Amino acid sequence: MRDHSIFQRDIKNHWNVQYNQNGYPHVQQGWVLHPEKQKEFDPFILMAEDWFKRGTFSDHPHRGFQTITYVVDGRLEHIDNHGGHSILESGDVQYMNAGWAARHAEEAVDDDLIHTLQLWLNLPKSLKNTKTSYQNIYVENAPEVPFDGGRIKVYSGDLAGVKGPMESLVPITMAEISFSAGASYSHVLPENHNAFLYVLSGELEFGKSKTTLEKTSAATLTYNEKGSGSSELVIKANTRSKVLIYSGVPINEEVVAYGPFVMNTMEEIQQAFRDYHAGKFGPPAV
Question: Which prosthetic group or cofactor does it need (predicted)?
Answer without folding.
Answer: Fe cation
